[in-house]
Amino acid sequence: MKKNNLYYFCVLADELHFGNAAKKLHITQPPLSRAIQQLEEELECLLLKRDQRNVTLTPAGEYLKQRGDVLLANLSEMKSEVKKIVHGQKGELHITLVGSIIQRLMPYLKRFIRKYPSVKIKISQYTTREQIQLIKSGDADIGFLRGPIFARGLNLYDFYKEPFVLVTPRHFKGTVSKIEDFQQLSNMSYISFPRYLARGLHDQITRICNMAAYYPHVIHEVHQLDLIVRMVECGLGISIIPQCGLDGLLADIRTFKLDFISQQSVISCYFNDLKDNPVLGNFLKELNISKEVHKK
Amino acid sequence: MKKNNLYYFCVLADELHFGNAAKKLHITQPPLSRAIQQLEEELECLLLKRDQRNVTLTPAGEYLKQRGDVLLANLSEMKSEVKKIVHGQKGELHITLVGSIIQRLMPYLKRFIRKYPSVKIKISQYTTREQIQLIKSGDADIGFLRGPIFARGLNLYDFYKEPFVLVTPRHFKGTVSKIEDFQQLSNMSYISFPRYLARGLHDQITRICNMAAYYPHVIHEVHQLDLIVRMVECGLGISIIPQCGLDGLLADIRTFKLDFISQQSVISCYFNDLKDNPVLGNFLKELNISKEVHKK
DNA sequence: CTTTTTCATACCGAATAAGTATTAATAGAT
DNA sequence: ATCTATTAATACTTATTCGGTATGAAAAAG
After folding, report:
1. Which chain A residues are closer than 8 Å to B277 by Cβ?
2. What is the pLDDT of residue B295?
3. Which of the four pLDDT bands, split at 50, 70 and 90, describes residue B294?
4. Distance (Å) from CA A17 to C1' D9?
5. Tens digits of residue pLDDT in B205-222
6. Mean pLDDT score of chain A, rounded to an integer?
7. Quick one: pLDDT at residue A274?
8. CB B131, CB B84: distance < 8 Å
9. What would the DSSP string read from start to end of chain B?
10. Cβ contacts of residue A37 below 8 Å, gap of 6+?
């Protein structure tokens, strides 16, 4: 089917008058006549009955008009949807995050969803380690993970920083408000997590302990922050975790904010090349992340 | 959107290789490159990511490919449906008929429906007079009506001929087997129908009576053949009707086939110009009506 | 019978598409 | 590191299509 012939025909079918239809199409009448003839040739049928005075649709023309209108509407709708995709107003955004961070992200997410209602958000919880993989492979668009992280070729932005917190069972009677206070903890058990899950975070905590000349007696390793808190609650030991690990948890424990230590836990967000998913650009805008990001 | 650009794109999206896609499209590679560029310009977006070795779809391209395939399939389906219409294999056929004729028509109709299952049949019962109007105006395609008829500009075919029948109440004791026998009827009431409903038929019957030197004493006029039969059954009079007026009726009457009279009742079918509805042509073929029809 | 309306045809120039030859860039091989 | 092969883009030419002007034909309106 030629360029605009179907469109020409549909307009003509509305007007049932070559001259008027041509005017509407901003062309002259002869090209329109020929276009319709071509269409009729291609479909091997008469679409219009011209009896020198009146133009009427044949049954085939009637049908073509009906279907053609739908088809053309479909075409233009498709075009506009494509444009939406390009401008990141439609599509999918796959976000991965470490569990404890969802509450901090929520306000941004809410704003984004209100602004881009046609974007389908996919959120999954993964370990720091897994997220790096997903983003590198393009299966996720942006990951919120606990830094610091060493990943080549990914864009980095420090989304959020917060102090570490020492968590102890309720029955712990001391106070920890300066670095020397760590000494009281020497004979207590320590609950940790496997280093491979989040090397940066693990090393950061180790550094804190070293600074305080505190050498934790690790007896348990668990995989989730909230499980650490539960272990502490049961009196099985103490731990140092990022503040947000306590978000939304009701636990009968004591907490000591380690804000007298310069080390802070950082939630970084990592993402791949912007061009891969236009939605990502708009999401970053909502996070107030400028496009000039640091590459490692 | 230009001529084939969408199709070009969809094939390219299948191949993800300009050279191969061009081969599949029976064009060379440069025109394809340009076609895609044009499409991208029109949609103001990148549809493909070319990294010198591999071609991959962007999200927008992915979407366009999906919708585009559907759209193109729709387009070609539309074309083939149009062709079906032109060849009378799809569409509507509006048949009108006088009630008494449906049983004679049924075998043809059955065959036609089996052969053209996509054709929607519309049958309505009308008087002779009304049918002429409907066919002239194009609201019906073909009408089966009781002739003879004088209608300018319509195509005519004598579909079926049958003898007239004299119907009398059960208690009539005579016999009518030759023209002189009509004399016995002189003193009986006659049940007729208004002349304007079917002038030709009415006049034919009048002619029969004149021939037999029988001058019927009309006391009732009713509008339907079956009502005439019922009136006769009740002993209210006699009547002369076409044979098929008795089809499917169980009536306690006496009947005398008037086959000693040359006059026959004719069911004519009338129809408008063939081009108005391609289905009509196929229907006429099923009726074994050649295309060379008599025009009045 | 003339005029007007309206679609079709003939012809021309402009725009667009396709082909050929070549370039640029990169991946893989030597 | 250099060379070769692959692949898409670019430059340029040719062919096709498209739209415009002028005109014709047929029938309705005055």
Report:
1. 59
2. 44
3. very low
4. 46
5. 999 999 999 999 998 899
6. 87
7. 66
8. no
9. --TTHHHHHHHHHHH--HHHHHHHHTS-HHHHHHHHHHHHHHTTS--EEE-SS-EEE-HHHHHHHHHHHHHHHHHHHHHHHHHHHHTTSSEEEEEEE-GGGHHHHHHHHHHHHHH-TTEEEEEEE--HHHHHHHHHHTS-SEEEEES----TT-EEEEEEEEEEEEEEETT------SGGGGGGGTTSEEEE--GGG-HHHHHHHHHHHHHTT---EEEEE-SSHHHHHHHHHTTS-BEEEEGGGGTT---SEEEEE-TTSS-EEEEEEEE--GGG-HHHHHHHHHTT--S--EE-
10. none
Mark out chain B residues that contact chain A at CB-CB < 8 A. 1-3, 42-46, 49, 58-60, 63-64, 67-68, 71, 74-75, 78-79, 81-83, 85-86, 91-92, 275-279
B99, B123 Cβ separation under 8 angstroms: no
Please, what CATH class does the domain formed by A159-266 belong to? Answer: alpha beta
- Of B67, B71, B82, nearest to A43 by CB-CB distance is B82
| Chain segment B94-152, per-residue pLDDT in tens | 999 987 788 888 999 999 999 999 999 999 998 888 888 888 877 899 999 887 777 66
Q: Do B78 and A68 touch (CB under 8 A)?
A: yes
Chain B neighbors of A74, CB-CB under 8 A: 67, 71, 74
Name chain A contacts of B81, Cβ cutoff 8 Å. Answer: 63, 67
CATH for B160-266?
3.40.190.10
Q: Fold for domain B5-86? A: Arc Repressor Mutant, subunit A (1.10.10)
**Inter-chain CB proximity A67 and B81 less than 8 Å:** yes
Q: CATH 3.40.190.10: does it fit domain A91-158+267-295? A: yes
